[in-house]
């Protein structure tokens, strides 16, 4: 291939050279023609001109020839380089192909040789095996044979090992069958011959025995204090506790608790704790049910609750060290519900959260969020400062941003739940609130202290005083369940008398049921109709062009008795939501007050309600509400006696209420004018309503009212109050004179009182002109301004 390409490139180069020669001939012929034409013209010129022209033409021809030669040489060089590069590429490709072919052939030869060597070695090994009968003959020198023997030996050893394991399993199964047959044979024996091999039963209670068989064996035992009988009662106790704990739920927990107290929980407290923890681990959704069950048991047997708490805390610590998230979640949830039931102290919850958030990871923060959701409601009541510190730590973790986005969303959701005061996450459900707070015993266990789980309580141990302990528990059980058993007996005794009276009461019950059905009415507790009414009122107010159209449409809405208040509330709410006050709402409220007195009374109630809750409103809403009621008062749509609910003193007002009063009276002065407003406020028939705004009970309150209205630019309406303040010392003197005359017996006391009164009079006379002078100066400054 390389030779072909080189020959082709040589042919191309020859063709190009021939073309170049022909082109150069054509150029020389053309130049000759031009010269002939020039020579023809030269005959007409002078000799000197002819010489100069010939020189110039000769120089041009030389330059053209030199440039042409340079171009030709350059093209020739480029052609050579192209040919050389193409030849080198072809040679490189041929070399690469040859190398690959050699490698492939070498690999094939090597594989073929290996196959032949393996076949020959295998044949030789077979021949030697036939001759000697020994696989490990010392004459083996081939590596392939050694590898083959090693592989075969390993396979044989694996087969032998499997045979051994299978034989051991068969032996164990045979021993178990023999033990079962022995136990069945020994069950017919009596006394000490029953279950002689007690030590082989193990921790879990030994071989399974059906309940009827176990009851029969317990009846056949004569010695009730023997170890065999104690073993049988232990197995029965374990099975009954497991069965009761496994079937408990929120509906039947009240029925399970008496049955559970019927078992010996003092002897089986370890079994009870282990059963609760296993059941909770298997079904975490029933954790609150198990916690309620433990809370009831804890009221009667506090040592059971303490043992369970210790084991759960130990389980939490082990899961935390091993990074076992599943077990950690179960333990944390159980602790949270025990805190809700107040079996565990809230300090363990705070310690747990501090530990989880000390070095926050995605899993630890997720577990902490779930824990706070479960017991945050009760922590907010028992330890609000501690819960606030935990949430501050959550906020810090959120700001650091080192955890996953999913966990950040979980923290944000937790803050939303806290803002809603843990609605949807109650501490204890009503059906599981079975223990009074006074009866509950709370255990304080710290995460830092050493904990003894007392695992030996889960294992059977013979009790030398077994019968005495059983009798003591029977007496204790009677004290716990005695009242319930008496109630049941009384109910059984009275059932016969009730059966006789049932026939007589059946007719009366039927009549009562008919009357109840007639009297029964359906009530909508979801308030769907109320929500739809508010929506209709809101859309009507917002879609109307002016207040007349809105009033006409709102009056067409059919309101049930008692729903008129919703109209006033929605109108006031829409007004408060606007950015600035719109006179549209004041005119609409005025129209409703003029049409029906019911609306006027409802707006009066709204005024009282809004003023009592004025501190909850923002500044913009507060301004809109004040201007709305000022419009109603200025147009006499609302009676002025509603101002009696305002008490203008330093103790009875807040900053929000003072802003409300300021905007209200400023709007009234703009709407009515200061003169007409003063006339309204000085109306003798309305003085009882204005006593709270212009108090005269105490000089301190009087001065506060005067200073307040003066500071908002309405000092003119306080002239009567100022005169009263000036004359207050005289009035006090007049009130004290009859008192001094009645006290004739104590002359010295009267003299001292007279001196005090004269002193106070002089002081009041000195103070009153000073106050009047201040008012006059203030008025002059305002006039100048």
TrEMBL record:
Residues 483-517 have a biased composition (Acidic residues). It is found in: Nucleus. InterPro entries: ARM-type_fold, CWC22_splicing_factor, Initiation_fac_eIF4g_MI, MIF4G-like_typ-3. Its main location: nucleus. SUPFAM superfamilies: ARM repeat. Transmembrane segments: none annotated. This is MI domain-containing protein. It comes from Vitis vinifera (Grape).
């Amino acid at each position: 291939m390389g030779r072909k390409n080189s020959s082709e490139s040589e042919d191309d180069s020859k063709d190009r050279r021939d073309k170049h020669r022909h082109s150069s001939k054509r150029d020389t012929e053309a130049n000759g023609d031009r010269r002939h034409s020039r020579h023809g013209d030269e005959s007409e010129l002078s000799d000197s001109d002819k010489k100069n022209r010939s020189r110039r033409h000769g120089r041009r021809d030389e330059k053209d020839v030199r440039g042409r030669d340079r171009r030709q040489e350059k093209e020739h060089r480029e052609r050579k380089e192209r040919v050389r590069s193409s030849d080198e590429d072809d040679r490189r490709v041929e070399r690469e192909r040859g190398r690959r072919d050699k490698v492939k052939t070498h690999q094939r030869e090597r594989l073929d040789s290996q196959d032949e060597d393996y076949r020959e070695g295998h044949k030789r090994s077979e021949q030697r095996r036939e001759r000697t009968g020994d696989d490990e003959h010392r004459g083996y020198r081939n590596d392939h044979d050694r590898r083959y023997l090693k592989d075969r030996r390993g396979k044989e050893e694996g087969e032998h090992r499997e045979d051994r394991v299978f034989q051991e399993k068969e032996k164990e199964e045979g021993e178990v069958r023999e033990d079962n047959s022995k136990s069945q044979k020994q069950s017919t024996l009596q006394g000490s011959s029953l279950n002689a091999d007690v030590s082989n039963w193990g921790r879990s209670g030994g071989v399974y025995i059906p309940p009827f068989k176990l009851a029969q064996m317990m009846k056949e035992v004569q010695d009730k204090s023997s170890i065999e009988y104690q073993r049988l009662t232990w197995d029965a106790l374990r099975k009954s506790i497991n069965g009761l704990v496994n079937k408990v739920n929120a509906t039947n927990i009240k029925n399970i608790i008496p049955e559970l107290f019927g078992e010996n929980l003092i002897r089986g407290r370890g079994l009870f704790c282990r059963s609760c923890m296993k059941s909770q681990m298997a079904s975490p959704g029933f954790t609150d049910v198990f916690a309620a069950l433990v809370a009831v048991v804890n009221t009667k047997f506090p040592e059971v609750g303490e043992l369970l708490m210790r084991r759960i805390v130990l389980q939490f610590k082990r899961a935390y060290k091993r990074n076992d998230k599943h077990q950690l979640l179960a333990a944390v949830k159980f602790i949270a519900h025990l805190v809700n039931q107040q079996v565990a102290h809230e300090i363990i919850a705070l310690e747990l959260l501090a530990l989880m958030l000390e070095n926050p990871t995605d899993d630890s923060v997720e577990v902490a969020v779930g824990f706070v959701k479960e017991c945050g409601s009760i922590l907010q009541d028992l330890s609000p400062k501690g819960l606030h510190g935990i949430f501050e730590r959550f906020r810090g973790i959120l700001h650091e941003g080192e955890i996953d986005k999913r966990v950040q969303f979980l923290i944000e959701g937790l803050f939303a739940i806290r803002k809603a005061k843990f609605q949807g996450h109650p501490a204890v459900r009503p059906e599981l609130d079975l223990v009074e707070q006074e009866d509950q015993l709370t255990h304080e266990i710290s995460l830092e202290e050493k904990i003894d789980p007392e695992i030996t309580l889960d294992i059977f141990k013979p009790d030398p005083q077994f019968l005495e302990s059983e009798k003591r528990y029977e007496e204790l059980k009677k004290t716990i369940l005695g009242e319930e058993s008496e109630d049941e007996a009384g109910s059984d005794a009275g059932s016969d008398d009730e059966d006789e009276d049932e026939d007589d009461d059946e007719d009366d019950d039927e009549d009562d049921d008919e009357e109840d059905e007639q009297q029964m009415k359906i009530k909508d507790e979801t308030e769907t109709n109320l929500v739809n009414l508010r929506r209709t009122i809101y859309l009507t107010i917002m879609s109307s062009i002016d207040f007349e159209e809105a009033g006409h449409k709102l009056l067409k809405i059919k309101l049930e008795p008692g729903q008129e208040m919703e109209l006033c509330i929605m109108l006031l709410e829409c007004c408060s939501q606007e950015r600035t006050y719109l006179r549209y709402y004041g005119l609409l409220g005025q129209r409703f007050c003029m049409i029906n007195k019911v609306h006027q009374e409802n707006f009066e109630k709204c005024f009282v309600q809004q003023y009592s809750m004025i501190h909850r409103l923002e500044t913009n809403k507060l301004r809109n509400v004040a201007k709305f009621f000022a419009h109603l008062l200025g147009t006499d749509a609302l009676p002025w006696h509603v101002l009696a609910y305002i008490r203008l003193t330093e103790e009875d007002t807040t900053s929000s209420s003072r802003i409300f009063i300021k905007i209200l009276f400023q709007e009234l002065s703009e709407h009515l004018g200061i003169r007409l407003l003063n006339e309204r406020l000085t109306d003798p028939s309305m003085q009882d309503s204005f006593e709270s705004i212009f108090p005269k009970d105490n000089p301190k309150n009087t001065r506060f009212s005067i200073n307040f209205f003066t500071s908002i630019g309405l000092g003119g309406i306080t002239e009567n109050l100022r005169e009263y303040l000036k004359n207050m010392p005289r009035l006090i003197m007049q009130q004290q004179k009859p008192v001094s005359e009645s006290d004739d017996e104590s002359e010295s006391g009267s003299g001292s009182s007279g001196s005090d009164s004269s002193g106070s009079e002089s002081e009041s006379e000195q103070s009153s002109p000073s106050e009047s002078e201040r008012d006059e100066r203030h008025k002059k400054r305002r006039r100048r301004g």
